[in-house]
């Protein structure tokens, strides 16, 4: 029953929150949709921490995509041995994960110790940072557990037959609860914290990720816009500034 | 002829600027009297020589603003092209920090009335508006006003460093003038080109450069892109903000706040027509010294029938054409060539022009006991007083002294010619000839520079759909932002229980239904003068943030029970 709620119902609740929340926020809070950058206050630490975190995160996201989307049979069919796949995934995952964690740690430390940045930190930010750091830490823990299992030969369910199968089944609306229930504890924790992150995502400053400005690469440099469809202003008898 | 576009441009006559900062203050009251932009001055007045605001903004070796010409003759952003912009999205290495502007502060006024009884009179100490902590005030937007700080600060002026030691020596003999600065509303705006989100744009009708507050995502690249450092990052909202050329006023034919309130009446506003298709070509000329002539060449003669026909073809209304023909700005820039652009070498084609100050020259001449209004004395002084001319040339013509000299000679001839007229002496055509003009030209210039009334200085056509006969008869309150889901100068009434909604200040802008956080932040800001929640300040009203409307809670102490 708990498994059904956690892996059968919760993902859909999170999806509704994530997609619905993003649509709702996009429609009603364009003005609040921003990075809320704190670079103006402090840039020395940001210049190290922020690229470390963001580029690390990009690699992590790509890794998640590959790990969750591509079934094991496909990579086997492509002639990639499981051992090679795992070595690559864990190696790359560990490096990217550590970069991301180090980056976010530096950013949180900067946020706490730099006066203006700390003053500009809202409760919303604090909650977001807690969930984000937890998600990254739990993710890194799964990598460690998997690596340890790889070296010690301990029995650890392969996430590609458990988590990934469950993840893909969500999208065809028949969640494979049993597959996820069979996954390791670290993966379960990571999945739960990840779902928490996605649930709060649209309501935090993280939304700036949705507006990654790819379009900039393709548009002309100078943008012109026309003022149109504006209601003409009201009129009254003329008065100069000094005669008011 | 390529596509004809109209641009509302400004000219400032620097000889008339007394450095009173009224323009800065009224601009601040109108646009940036909000938290998040405490440090931002859409209009500021700098003393030259001096470092300016933000500090040393002209040092493009460091800030890399504006455009640069590649060896192949193409224009590219000096801070790097599109790919580099995206690669440095996470930490912009070329963004000024708050300390390059100044750390905004307030004073702990509360201490004056809450201090315990003691022998010493309590004082209001400065507190940072960023952290709320006590701070030492060590810099501001005009810290080196009137050459305060002397050679130590002024020697840090990037132009002084460029022109060399000679300025510093002459500088001991006081050569100084004021430079009021707003956004240049460039024809080739590098801030717009730098915006990854496409939130910044140049308005097709009047050329005003604006930031779409709803589309801005806070990537901060515009701050880097603008070589004049006239785009500011609002650190509370996380959005870029900049001078709007007071477009709600311009649209109804009124001058900007800075122009309206200018004590010296030194600002001129008017329409110029330009050939939009040749902008890129003009901005990419090889020699920096050719940029001023190239920019001049872009401006089209509104009296030319071909230009008029092309303008009508491109949808410019007749009212705008008529306005362009009366434009004082076009007259000063192109007919008399006395107004010069600020730093054309940034290749942005700036549209706020300056008449260089003759007063340092006049003062030098009269200071030595000579007649400061005699044409020969002045001409000679312009030629020999290399320092002001070279300095001004670095400022206005990418280092080419000829246009500056020409402008100064015209101003000198004007003084001399008009003195003869005023004293009833015979007109001496050689004076005007020496400046490359005629007596009639000088008298026209005299009328425009010395006598021009409000309607002659500000020739602004109203926005489309409004008859030109209505110029200036449009109610300020009914500004064109005031429509449903507009960018929000009105319409806040419902959210704050106020009708009518205040057009400016903290409670202005449209309601933010999604962000509960913003609501709380707004309320906190309005009722405290501390940057974040401070329990002991709850319930107080910060009068500096109060826009004068209504009676906010906490304005008066609670009524005591009888």
From TrEMBL, chain B:
Residues 488-562 are annotated as: Disordered. Pfam families: Fer4_11, Nitr_red_bet_C. It is found in: Cell envelope. Keywords: 4Fe-4S, Electron transport, Iron, Iron-sulfur, Metal-binding, Repeat, Transport. InterPro entries: 4Fe4S_Fe-S-bd, Nitr_red_bet_C, Nitr_red_bet_C_sf, NO3_Rdtase_bsu. Coiled coil: none annotated. Its cofactor is [4Fe-4S] cluster; [3Fe-4S] cluster. Residues 8-36, 174-205, 207-236 form the 4Fe-4S ferredoxin-type domain. It comes from the Bacteria. Gene3D superfamilies: 3.30.70.20, nitrate reductase domain like. This is Nitrate reductase subunit beta. It comes from Nocardiopsis endophytica. The gene is narH.
